[in-house]
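look at this fold:
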Amino acid sequence: MPRLALSSGSRGTELKERAPRDAGAARAAGAATSGVPAALRAIGVRPSRRLGQNFLIDPRVAERIVALVEDPREAVIEIGPGLGALTTLLAATGRELTAVELDLRLAEALETRLAVWPAARVVRGDILEQRAEDLASGPATVVANLPYSITTPALEWIVTQGGRVKRAVLMVQREYAQRLSAKPGGKEHGSITVFLQLHAEVRVLFRVSPGAFHPRPEVDSVVLEVVPRPYPGTTAEERASVERLARAGMGTRRKTLANALGRALGMEGAVVRAWLGAAGVDPERRGETLTVDEWIALARVAPRRMTT
């Protein structure tokens, strides 16, 4: 898995705006989101278009996200805090907070700003090389404004931390969120959809317009709540098998499942068809039409060498 920069900055659309907890938090929100272009220039940081880095500049959005982490006793791990649009509001509650920043220039600037809150700290490095148990004293909530290019590895990190992440509040591109919640048969449905359904429950909380960011992206964003949990009735081995099979079966669009699996796994057509038949799956279907339960059924009757 490539190591990429993670840098930012019912609950749902009916969620009301909340004021910051105190005047200091309000000032922190404004300071972290005003003058963002000048602040970036001052420390020599240019947002990466390739990595999809867009810094949050709307303090109302920052306040709304932080309001979702209501309990000040709740430890938070923030991925890619950037200039601290969310970080300063979170730190102002006095909670345990660890902000993980890969860009050393951003990390150094944020360390100075967080010095007034003793329970907050910055860890310099790549979140994908960290362990949640080293970042928080107990189960924590993850908060992040994720660049599109690293959303998938960040999600994989979140759901594979062995219970040390109890939930995540994430800002992602709306198009990506649609992939995560896509129904079988749609063009957005893919292996990442199956992966996340195997490991978590996902809920869209609210939408964020392009004007809330610098540079301004071309698409809308949404804030998601992700709650890690194993798919009911499955083992870790079965989930790993399903992940491998889904990648193989959906790696080439417009191929039948029999052809896609046979090619990806190096199996003869007759063997694949017999296997699919044993699972009750039509070999002429395409991988993107299968439900998670059907992938699980496939994994449970697959030749062992195909799932390990």
